[in-house]
Each structure stands twice: as structure tokens, then as C-alpha cells.
Amino acid sequence: MSTDIELAVNGVRQRVVVTDDDLLLEVLRRIGHTSVREGCGVGACGACTVLADGRSVSSCLARAVRYDGVPLSTADGLPEDDDVVAEFVAAGAMQCGYCIPGFVLMGHELLAENPAPSRAEIAAHLEGNICRCGTYQEICTAIEATARRRQAAQERRSA
Amino acid sequence: MANGLHSGAGGAVGERWARTDARAKVRGELRYAADQPLRPCLDVVLHRATRPHALLESVDVEDALAVDGVVAVVTGAQLYERFGDALMTGPAFSDQPCLAVGKVRYVGEPVAAVIARGLAPARAAAERVLVDYAELDAVHDVDAAAAGGPYVHEELRPSIIFGDLKHLRGKRDTNVNYEFNLRRGDVAAAESEALERGGATVREEFWCPPTHHVPIELPFTAAWRDGDRLEILSTTQTPSYVRQSVADLLGIPLNAVRVRSAPLGGSFGAKMYDRLEPLAAALAWSQKLPVRIVANREEAFLLTTRHGVAVTSSMTADAEGRIVASSADVRYDTGAYADVGPRITGKSGMVAAGPYRVDNVKVRSRCVYTNKPSAGPFRGFGVPQVTWSHESLADELARECGIDPAEFRRRNLLREGDVSAVGTPIHSADFLGCLDAVTEAVGWNTPLQREQGRLRRGRGVAVGLKAVLTPTISNAVLQLNQDSSATLLISTVDMGQGSDTIMAQIAAEALCLGEGQVRVVTADTDVTPYDTITAGSRSTYHTGNAVRRAAEAMRDKLVGLAAERFGVPATDVKLTADGLVSAQTQQRVSIPELLHGHFGARGTTLTTEANFTTSWVPYDHETGQSERVTEHWFAGAVAAQLTVDTETGRVHIEHLAVAGDVGRAINPTLVEQQLTGAAIMGVGHALFDQLVFDEGQIVNGTLLDYQLPSVLDLPDKITPIIVESPHRTGPYGAKGVGETTIIPLAPAIANAVRDAIGIRFARLPLTPERILTALAAQETHK
Amino acid sequence: MSALDLATPVLHRPDTLAETCSLLAELDQPMVYGGGTAVQILLKQGVLFASDLVDIARVPGLDRIEETGEGLRVGAMVTLRRMETDPVVRRLAPLAAQVYGRVANPRVRNTASVGGNLAHGDYRLDPPTALLALDARVELTSAGGTRLVPVREFFTGFQETALGEGELVTAVLIPAQPSPAAAFIKLSSLSVNDWPCASAAALLVPTGRRRERWELRLGLGALAAKPEYLSLSVPVGTAVDEVLEAAQRAADQVIDPIPDVRGGVGFKRRLGLVAVRDAVRAAWDVAAQPTAGSTRGSVPGSAREEDSDGQRTAQRRWWRGR
């Protein structure tokens, strides 16, 4: 069965026709969000991570019909001056880069819930995202740096 | 002047330039192969064999064709009728058809290809293909296969390209498709003599299971026919190879085939030689349809794997702790198709005795067919498996002799100028430097708290040696644009190792260009010149040299033009960061001004090109000896400190120090990421990575079951250490590093476990179950 | 031949519980689609046999967490992540919050539902261990009405539960945790973030008129064809080693591992006993603290845990409410 749904991706609303079986991953890629990728098809690697209402979701296991009207975020739609992105770049947190957008979104989710995570908490939050090139340390450093940066900005504001 | 230590005063080599496309990678804007805009293609889904070894009695595609949306269903028999023996591809042996012809040789082998409008009908139709099999006995164990039948192939089919494999053509009644032998001195005599005089020998049977590369990006290949030309877009590390392979398959000239690659989402050897390309090409050409083939994760496991290897080996030392003899009988399980197995067998056989001075060496290394998915190139190219053997033996032997394992190695490691077991001298392979660096980093000689509750702590070290693939060829074309930006055309593919960045640095160095001024074009065989392969850590040295030469030729051209403009001899002109300067007259001109003045137009280009080709002296067929078997060596070492939980069997790595001699680090950050990244992959191999087969069928072929190191599997601390022992002919002294630390990783872990609990493990991986079982056995024997 | 006439289950998206129950009663081989991750994986692997999928995401009222007189009422569509982070859960049933938070990774927990986690009867899952120890009850609803099944009777066999035809899980009732002396240990055999090879939730509850005995409740996961529960009673003041010994002996009777790529029977049994011992010891340590014996307001999961995987699990902090 085909349905007309509204996807709200990165603040932009778009009507798309999907079947009941269409996965969010396929639909998002079809409309141009190639930062969302398939790596395993079973939700184990995190390359397909998107944020739905701020919460991370494996889009390879999510049916698009369930996300009608739900605000979605993908890495390619983050603001140009996004701080998590900036810190990833500064930390050299990428090698082949294929898995990194997923990590960026997980970083956003974590910092929204826990603004000053310890290294262990960062690792616990990222345990479901695989980086085969082994860039984990830089990724954790980038998230820590973002937390510190936000803290400093906060302190400046309240000063 | 030799490509020695001094730079072109360019300020690029040795700098931590930001990785090309860093921001695009983080934001997910970089386009990988599957993200590239394409003409509309039909989808291909494969019907795969469900038997490990069987004759194809019949392949019935009628029901499949009846599915709505299906355009064609193609079988191996049809393709063979069209292409004949050219259908058989492979980098060493021409033994693999892209669709099974006559028989299937592994579970999962493609039998028929459905071409349809969309994946859903393609999948539906693939399930409706009916195959009648006449089952044959299958052989799964590498030693059973080496000893006799059943025979996976009726006769051996070495590729016509390789003269040294000619003698194997037509050979029948064997599963051994290649054998490498190394003989030096007299191992048996040396052994008995040493033992008589108070020396010691250790012997063991080692096993490394098949594993998988699992790059996160899945394989993708699209192909279409444009009149007389075939175009391919594919996830491949080897576009030049694919062009040749497809040209051979289709019987058309090289300039009628265009192969484009894209930045790869990891590869580690999984996307090389002939994967989905021959099939896509054969279908697109014969059916005159644009096709797209995507492998899902389960299928990616079937495309290529890492060799499972059995090694029976020994090492003997004299009473002074000097290694006097070393032997190894190595069997590589190459699966149903040889792929590059024969080369791996030879190249690893060459270094099976390890990085040591040994006068008496005997190595027999064989490449064996079995009925499982083909094994091919994987980071390390077969060397991690023989290193598992020699570094475990060296460790045990050190203990037998009562000598500290690091010290024992120090006494025996090859030094600059020494002749290796294969007969080629050592240059720029600082084994000692690497060993010292890692042992110091983990505090090898500092006190160690060995018992902490139920934890047992230990330290281990291992040293690795590898020879770079030789002979190979690299080319580079450099285009300097009038605005002094430059475009570099090479067929080296960036799969995360950072080639796009360091090649730009090498080009920029001679031309005094800055960060971001040189752009590497994505490999496209219509445009980028031939490069053997991007693999085996060869690109920094080989492509790097071609790039350096092209850049220096460009510098010379600019100097010539400036000299003309200034009216001075060329020897008087220098290229600096400020432009071209005459020492005599102090005249100065920037590159843009110079080119504008010369051409009288904007947007113009100056072009130079260069080649870098290496040669070797092929090893003797009987003795394996050669005075120049490789262009250069790789040296690396790993030291580990870890704990073993005696209740759960779990190994926890506290500190991993990893060092590689890179000659010269073109970009230290990227080198450190390779040292660390390869080490993390090695941790997986040491502790839990393995492909599990049941009667030839992969049992754990999903990421829910096949485990990869996550952030929680990281050692508490990883110390990457760059060692620089400049190579006299490397670009600015540089060599590659991508495989260096994965090579000795597993034995370093096993040696540390041995130190912690006194048990030697000869089989990988060191799972908690194996450790607990061994601990329990140790208890019983007390 | 249409591509659609293959066994692709038809998706239904009812708007009410009543509609859901009717569908479950009428359809041929319906399966409830709650969180969806497990079902989606089975579908992809071609091992899901269902004619229809009934998506309950639109049914109101299934995603509430309510404090009741006895403890908690958790709707079937509450995500595992909410169980991990919700302040009410962390206050009233900290063991449950802790265990739900150990399942897989945050992405899975954001989608997987409490109901789905129970309904599939997967013997490896962690949350049943806590629910068993806490003596929770599962609310099952069908067109014929509602009934409650104690979780200790809910798992009936290998991937079999007490769910009858036409029934779905609509809520889980969790009694307020009677004691802070609880611990959860999860051991894996491959990578650290792998499925568990053995897991144990331990809860020590003071019993007796003068609180002179401990009831040790143990929920075991991944160690038999279904999650298992056992309990023993020990006098307060028993030496910890004796308690551990007794717990292991009792657990040994119940452990009956299924061998797979993660390990053979012997290994899993050994690991199971270690998990039991470590969980009981950790719970005992909490019990031994002076504040032990009080129930509410006690240390809600902010203890530093060190499980035998050699990893320190994250020190839990107060989460911002979402």
C-alpha cells in the first residue's frame, strides 16, 4: 500500500509517496540525503543513524510511514557553523569518513542530554557505532571538546 | 641528488596538513560510489548456490522471468556461450567465472543474475530461479585439500599474464595451485648441532581462521554500454586493473573501457581485482542494459575473505641465544577461487622466518583450493598469519633459553645491510628502533603488578617484517593551472589512508605550494594514468615517487620559463614560496604572472608527467632466493600490556604501543592514524574476529554475529610511534605504513597473555572460552 | 506473477486498542509491530512468518509511565531508553532502569519497546532478568479482555511465552523495588558490546518479621532456553562466601546453556556462575552499607559499577528530563 507522507528533514518539509515497507534509510537517500548510509542492514553499525525528534534511530530498520511529520535531522543538514562538526574537523576525526556522520549525530544526542559527559559516558553512548578505520579516539576527543566549548560559551553568557 | 633527507624547501612534506575533504566527510557530503549521480540503471540481484560443491544439472529461469518488472535473467552458461574462456577472470589464475559455469564451488556462488526494474522484483525473481544440483563431495579442511581430493578444479588455469606460473597450466588432480619454497643452509643439521651444544628448539602447529575485512561501505558497481564503449563506476582500489580485466573479458581495446572509482568507505583489500565488475560488464555488454549491482552485508562476506592459514613451524637457537635455524610449512586456504592467493603465498613465504638473522631456513608455502568463498588480499597480504607463527616461536624460544623476549629479539634482529633469509639485503627497516620504541613506551623493564585479585597481568612484544610488492608501476600527470592551483592525475584511490592528502603534499613540496592548492582527481581510467594497484602499502613510495618526479619536472619547466623571461641562465633561477627568483638580478615573478605572460591568456595549464617503475630479480624456483626480491621492506613492532580475567577469560588491554618505520612521515597525523587504526583492527583479530563455517556455509555473516572492535574494545591507552629511517629512494625518504602494525599485533597479544598466565595459544582468536578452557586444564595439571 | 504476492506481511496501523484486538483476533498469522527492530531484522533475514503486521504506534495510552500505589505501570510502547532515563523508574525500580540501560546501544534502546522486548521471548535479553527479580506482572489484552500474568510464569519455553492467540502485551506492572541491594552483571564473549553470553540480576530483600533473613532473588539471562528465575533465603549475618556458594549451587541447577558461536555449554555455564557470583557479591556489598534496608530515595543507580568484563560502566548521572 502506498501512502503520501510528509517528511520534515532538517527543517524542510517534503511530501513523498512511500509504500508500507519502505525503510526510512532508502527514502532519505532517494530524496538526496546521502549522508545516511547502509552498512549492515541490521542496526548494528550506525552508518544509517538519523535523529528523529532528537533521538537516534537506525534508519535501516525504521519504516518511513512511522515518521510522517516527525522532525528528522541528518548530518548533511546541520547548520554551517555546527560546533560538533567543527570539533570533529579540528580533531581530525575521520579517515574514510563513511561512518562519521552517524557519530556526529550520536554526539549531538549525547550532548543534548548530558552536557558534560565523561570519557566513559561518551564511549557508552557510542558503543553501537562502528568505525572500521579505528578513529574512535579522535571522535571521543571531538565530542569532549564540543562539551568544553559549550561550557565555556555558557560561562561567558552568564558572566 | 638522491631523494634523501632534504626537502624541496617546500614546507609541505612532514607537515600535519588537514585531510582533504575533511569537512565534507564529517558532514556526510562527500559522495561515495553509491552516492554518485548516475543514469537510470536496472537493478541486479543474484541467485546464489546453496551447495558447496555440485554440478549444475539445470538452471530454470522461467518462473523468474514471469515476475513483473523483470527484464532479463542470465545464467553462466549463456555468458560462457557469449564470451568463452574469457569469462574466467582472476589476478593470478583465470579460474573464476562471474556466474557459475557447469558447477558451483562454494555456498553462495552466483548462479544466475536477475535484471529488473527495482530491487523488489529482482529479489522476488531471484528466489524463483530453480536449480538442480548433482552434489559432489566437498573439501573444507585445508590439509585434507592439500593431501588429495575431492578436487575443486579439474585443472589449474594460471593467467596468461604471468610467465612464472606457466608451468602449472593444465595440471590436474590437485588442489595445490601454487607452491613457494625457500631453502637456505641445512635446517636439520643446524638443529641437531645446536641441540647437542646446549641450544633449544621449539615447534608448534599454528592456526589463523579466515576473517573478513568488513569495510563499512558496501560494494557497489554500475556498468552501462555506450555504443562501442563500456563504462563502469565501482568501489575499487584497482581501477587500472579492472579496465584491463574488463577489456580482456569483452575483447575490446583498453580505450573502449572506462573505469571510474570514488573515495572508498574503507576497503582494506576487500575491493580489489575482480569483484562485481566482470559481472556488471558482462551483463551490460551482452544485454545492452545499464545495470547496478549492490552487495548487501551478507553478500559482501561472500565476495572475498582473508585466508585461513595453518603453519607448522620450528625455530632453533644455540646456547648463546642466537637463532640458527627456522622452518615453516604454510598452507593458505584460498577457497574456491585462487584470486591473488598464489602471490600471497609467495610473498608471505619469503618472510616466514621473520626479521631475524638466520643462516638455515626452510619454508614451504602452499596455496590450496577448498570449497568455501574465495580468500584474497587483506591488509597484511598473508603476512600477519606467518608472523603469528614466527613471533610466537621467537617468544617461546627466548623463554626456553632463559632470555628476556625483547632482549632475545635484539640479539637476532636484522640490521641495516644484513641479508635476509630470502637473500635480499635490508635497507631502511629499523626493527631495533621499532622494538626499542615500543618496549620503552610500555615500560618493559619497570616492575609489573602481576596479580590483582582475579586478574593476571603480562607484557608481550612482537616484531613484523614485510616486503613491498615488486615489481609494480606508478604514473602521475600534473597540471599546473595559471592561477597556481594544481590538479594531480593519479590512479591511486583514497580509501581513508589519506592518499589524496599526502600526494598533494608531495606535489606541493617541490613547487612550494600551500595547503589546499593541489587537488587529486578521482581515479578515472579515461584520464588518470596506469597504476598497478592501491594496496600493500605501496602507494606512498611508488605513486609518491611518480608524483615527486612530475612535480620536479614542473619546477624545472617553470624555472626554464622564468629564466627565459629574466634573460638569465636556468641555473640562476630558484622556485620559492614567493615565486621564481633570479639570484643574479633579484628579479621575481609569481607563477600566475609567469604563466599569464607566457601564454597570454588566463586559465591555462602546464602539464608534466612521470613514471616510476620497479623491477626485481625473481626468486629462484627451488631455493626461493633472490638478491633483489623487493624494492623495500616494512618494519614494525607492537608491545602490549594486558590483564587476563581468570574468572571470565576476558583479555583487557591496558596499553598498546605500536611503531612503524616509515622512512619519512609525509603527514605524521595520517601516519599515526594508520598505525592506530591497523592496531585496532588487529585487536579484533587477536580476540574475537573469525568467520565460522559449517559445511562450507558462513554461519556468522551478519554484523549481529560477526564482531568488530567498538569503542568499548579499545585498549586503555594506544601509543603510536613513528620511526624514521629514511629510504634512499623513497620520495623524501618515505615509505608506506597501512599494514605495518596489524602484522605483529596478534602475536604481541598472545605473548602478553603467555606472560600473564603462562599459557601459549597457537590458535586464533584468543576467545574467553579458549582461555578459560586452557586455565582449567592448567589447574588440573597442577 | 506480481512481485507483491511473495510473503510480505501486510501492515495495519490501528488507531485504538479495540481495533488492535479485533485485528489480532481476525487475522491469519498476525504479529504485533511495536518497537519494530526485532521484527524488521527477522523480516530481512527471511525468517519471519507472519501474514500481517499490526503496528501499535498510533494506539494512544500505551507509552505512559505511571506511578501506582504498588510501584510502576509501564505501557508496552515505552522505549527501553525511557526506562533507562526516566526519573520515576530510577526512583522506584532502579534495578530495572539499570538493566534496561544495558541493552545493546542507545539507538536500539530509543526504538525497542518494553512490550516487544518481552513478547519475543528471546532468551538472551537482559530486561527479563530484572523483571523476574522484581516480580513484575505482564498485562495482556485481547478482544476478550485483560489479564495479568506474573513474569515468572510468562516465559514458557524456547522463544515461547504465555501470550495467547489474539493477545498483546499492553503494560508491565513493576512493584516498587523493596531494597536498594541490587546489581546486574552482563558478560559477553566476543567484542565487549556483543550480545550477552551470560547475565544475572540479583536483588536482596529483607524478609521475616524482624527482617532477620535475606531473600536473594536472581534473574538469569542467556543461560537457558528461556530467562530463568530462582530465589533462596539466607539468614542475615551469613558470611558472604557462603551466600555466594549457595547462590551458585542453586543457579547451577537451573543453568542449561545453548551452545553457539559465542561459546559452548561448558564455557557458558562457567561464565553464568561467574555472573551470578559477581552480581550477588555486588548486591551484598550494597546491602552491607548502613543505609541498606530502606527502600525509597536510596542510591538510585549512581554507584560505580565494575563488571567482570574489566570495564567500568559509565558512572550514571542525573539526566535532563526529555
Q: Main sheet of chain C, how many strands, which sense, barrel?
A: 5 strands, antiparallel
Which whole number gives the mean pLDDT of chain A?
Answer: 97
Count of distinct structural domains of chain C: 2
Estimated helix fraction of chain C: 25-40%
Q: What is the alpha-carbon Rg of chain C in Å? A: 20 Å
What name goes with the CATH superfamily of the largest domain in chain C? CO dehydrogenase flavoprotein, C-terminal domain
Shape call of chain A: globular
Low-confidence stretches of chain C: 1-5, 292-322
Distance between the termini of chain C: 49 Å
> Per the principal axes of the C-alpha atoms, what is the gross shape of chain C?
globular
Order of helices and strands of chain A: EEHEEEHHHH
Oligomer: heterotrimer
Distance between the termini of chain A: 57 Å
Q: How are the strands ordered across the major sheet of chain C?
A: 4-5-10-6-7
As residue ranges, the low-confidence spans of chain A are none
Which structural class fits the helix and strand makeup of chain A?
alpha+beta
CATH topology of the largest domain in chain C: Enolase-like, domain 1
Task: Tell me, rounded to a whole number, the average pLDDT of chain C.
Answer: 88
Strand content of chain C: 15-25%
Helix/strand/pairing category of chain C:
alpha+beta
Task: Describe the protein's topology.
The complex is a heterotrimer of chains A (159), B (782) and C (322).
Chain A: E1 2-9, E2 12-19, H1 24-30, E3 49-52, E4 55-58, E5 71-73, H2 83-91, H3 100-113, H4 119-126, H5 136-158
Parallel strand pairs in A: 1-5
Antiparallel strand pairs in A: 1-2, 3-4, 3-5
Chain B: H1 22-26, E1 42-48, E2 54-60, H2 62-65, E3 70-75, H3 76-83, E4 88-89, E5 96-97, E6 103-104, E7 110-116, H4 119-126, E8 130-135, H5 142-147, E9 176-184, H6 187-196, E10 200-208, E11 220-226, E12 229-234, H7 239-250, E13 257-260, H8 277-287, E14 291-294, H9 297-303, E15 305-306, E16 308-317, E17 323-335, H10 341-350, E18 360-369, E19 375-376, H11 383-400, H12 405-412, H13 431-441, E20 451-452, E21 455-467, E22 473-481, E23 486-489, H14 499-511, E24 518-520, H15 539-566, E25 573-576, E26 579-582, E27 588-589, H16 591-599, E28 605-613, E29 633-645, E30 651-661, H17 668-687, E31 693-694, E32 697-698, E33 717-723, H18 745-757, H19 768-780
Parallel strand pairs in B: 1-14, 12-13, 15-19, 17-18, 23-24, 30-33
Antiparallel strand pairs in B: 1-7, 2-6, 2-8, 3-7, 4-5, 9-18, 10-16, 11-12, 11-14, 16-17, 20-21, 21-29, 22-23, 22-28, 25-26, 26-27, 29-30, 31-32
Chain C: E1 10-12, H1 17-26, E2 30-33, H2 37-44, E3 52-55, E4 65-67, E5 71-75, H3 80-85, H4 87-92, H5 94-100, H6 106-111, H7 114-119, H8 127-134, E6 137-142, E7 145-150, H9 151-154, E8 155-157, E9 160-161, E10 168-175, E11 182-187, E12 198-207, E13 213-221, E14 228-235, H10 240-254, H11 265-287
